[in-house]
């Protein structure tokens, strides 16, 4: 029996699905006989297909999480006590970052606020990680400095999701009034205000615990940029920023208190710029509309969905620039794509098809096309032992406790957005193995770190049950009383788990052994070109001065080369005389 048949046999036993159903779900059926005998190595590593039977549970139904992994210690009690005593600071930092609501690559105030707090608590901060102005690495060393445990910080917000905090109905804090195209401002519709705050306070609490107990170790805080673009950490990995890391303890706000060892989708981001020639909309003959090309690209990629998109695949896009007035044919238009799949190899295949759609659209509209990869990240490599340790700490510390007022706010919010019921989740969700069939979903650039060092991830209910992130309702909840309680719990889970990794080398050893088994047959390569230059924005002078940086960094070309259309009006051929004129004499 080949490795694939063995894997599928196990999956059939666990899920009750037939071998053909499983192959169909992962996109192998219908692509030829050979396709059914190949398992992608990156996806296999993430789903546990490379592990022995002692590491993986025999079936989902029979799995019982181990107990007794999380241990009481002086370092842990000191860390948790410090968090309780500094809860007001936790909530204050969250709300201040929430109020700044800065976009990816432009987190000037938020990153400075957080890094300054780390410096005041004994961390040494180095700015400009991987060349990104708002990225930094903060380091605290205790004793011998071994092992090194990391925390990941994000603080970017999203466009169009402005919302007043703690308001259960849609009430944009910033409404941008325009007679022709009104819109909303920026908002924390993914909860990164809470994400960065909890990670930073957990890191400081861990450092306090190490100092109080004289425990050896290095605490690293990686202040990243542009998670919403799935860019900062993936590129930083390629520049060696995470070398020497023994393990990463990470989290993301969510709708419940949970952890696990599932994977995520790999992703490639591509921007397509079409160049035509402007002309009067009332005399359109010969004009070349870049918007037509962008629109046709969208139409063509929609036709990929039936025969080229497996259940694990995702294609979504936004037309970022489609013209400014209907009576001016758009000379320049841009459509920005995220292409997702279960592994880097599958992403590349799907992304090539999207590129071909854009090329065809340019050919059909006689426009020119300039396109580039703007970011890319891998699928997440999980850590089963890490998740089990995190779960045990969650059980011991307990789920967040919400007041009646919190729950009333949550249920009102759920009713007003039409998602979920039951308010905030008030229990720790059971730990169970991931589904045997990977059907895709979101992506994270933390995934690239997970291929460098064992990575633990978890979530807490910063928003009510049943929500989707990237909504105004998440922005409202992220700075509410309920959101505060969930992010404080997150900080406690992170700190407690990190302390266990310092004080219990056997568990860290288990995680490293599992990591070695999972990565045995996989070679990591970044999911963007070798000559890739990451997108950046020039910082304000005050930010450069405060952080001691200079512009531009050496890894980008500045100023960026201009993209200017040099198209001519289309040739329609010889003029046709009116047919009703008398013949010439």
TrEMBL record:
Record-linked PROSITE patterns: TAT
Highest taxon above the source species: Bacteria
A Pfam match: Peptidase_M20
Annotated InterPro entries: Amidohydrolase, Bact_exopeptidase_dim_dom, Peptidase_M20, Peptidase_M20/M20A_hydrolases, TAT_signal
Official protein name in the record: M20 family metallopeptidase
Lineage, highest ranks first: Bacteria, Bacillati, Actinomycetota, Actinomycetes, Micromonosporales
């Amino acid at each position: 029996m080949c490795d694939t048949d063995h894997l599928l046999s196990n999956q059939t036993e666990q899920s009750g699905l037939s071998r053909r159903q499983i192959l169909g779900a992962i996109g192998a059926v219908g692509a030829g006989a050979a396709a059914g005998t190949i398992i992608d190595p990156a996806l296999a590593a993430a789903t546990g297909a490379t592990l022995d039977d002692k590491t993986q549970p025999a079936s989902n139904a029979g799995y019982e999480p181990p107990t007794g992994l999380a241990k009481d210690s002086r370092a842990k009690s000191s860390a948790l006590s410090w968090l309780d005593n500094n809860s007001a600071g936790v909530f204050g930092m969250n709300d201040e970052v929430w109020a700044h609501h800065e976009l990816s690559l432009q987190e000037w105030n938020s990153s400075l606020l957080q890094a300054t707090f780390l410096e005041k608590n004994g961390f040494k901060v180095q700015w400009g990680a991987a060349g990104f102005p708002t990225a930094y690495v903060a380091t605290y060393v205790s004793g011998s400095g071994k092992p090194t445990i990391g925390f990941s910080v994000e603080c970017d917000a999203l466009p169009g999701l402005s919302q007043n905090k703690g308001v259960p109905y849609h009430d944009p804090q910033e409404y941008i009034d325009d007679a022709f195209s009104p819109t909303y401002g920026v908002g924390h519709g993914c909860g990164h205000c809470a994400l960065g705050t909890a990670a930073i306070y957990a890191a400081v609490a861990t450092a306090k615990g190490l100092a109080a107990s004289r425990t050896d170790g290095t605490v690293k805080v990686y202040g990243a940029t542009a998670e919403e673009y799935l860019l900062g950490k993936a590129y930083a990995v390629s520049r060696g920023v995470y070398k020497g890391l023994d393990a990463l303890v990470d989290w993301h706000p969510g709708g419940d208190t949970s952890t696990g060892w599932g994977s995520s989708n790999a992703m490639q981001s591509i921007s397509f710029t079409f160049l035509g020639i402007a002309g009067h909309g009332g005399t359109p003959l010969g004009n070349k509309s870049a918007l037509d090309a962008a629109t046709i690209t969208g139409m063509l990629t929609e036709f990929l969905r039936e025969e080229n998109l497996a259940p694990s695949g995702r294609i979504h896009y936004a037309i970022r620039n489609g013209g400014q007035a209907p009576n001016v044919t758009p000379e320049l238009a841009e459509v920005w794509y995220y292409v997702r799949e279960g592994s880097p190899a599958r992403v590349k295949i799907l992304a090539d098809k999207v590129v071909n759609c854009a090329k065809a659209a340019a050919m059909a509209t006689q426009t020119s096309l300039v396109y580039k990869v703007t970011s890319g990240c891998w699928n997440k490599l999980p850590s089963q032992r890490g998740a089990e340790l995190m779960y045990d700490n969650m059980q011991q510390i307990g789920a967040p406790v919400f007041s009646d007022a919190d729950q009333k706010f949550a249920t009102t919010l759920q009713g007003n957005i039409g998602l979920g019921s039951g308010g905030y989740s008030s229990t720790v969700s059971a730990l169970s193995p991931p589904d045997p069939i990977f059907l895709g979903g979101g992506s994270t650039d933390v995934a690239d770190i997970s291929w460098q060092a064992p990575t633990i991830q978890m979530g807490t209910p910063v928003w009510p049950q049943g929500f989707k992130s990237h909504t105004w309702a998440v922005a409202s909840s992220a700075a509410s009383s309920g959101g505060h309680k969930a992010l404080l719990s997150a900080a406690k889970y992170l700190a407690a788990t990190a302390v266990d990794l310092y004080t219990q080398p056997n568990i860290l050893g288990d995680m490293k052994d599992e990591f070695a088994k999972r990565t045995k047959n996989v070679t990591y390569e970044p999911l963007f070109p070798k000559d890739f230059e990451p997108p950046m924005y020039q910082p304000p002078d005050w930010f450069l001065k405060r952080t001691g940086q200079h512009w531009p960094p050496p890894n980008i070309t500045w100023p960026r080369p201009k993209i200017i259309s040099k198209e001519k009006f289309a040739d329609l051929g010889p003029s046709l005389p009116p047919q009703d004129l008398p013949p010439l004499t």
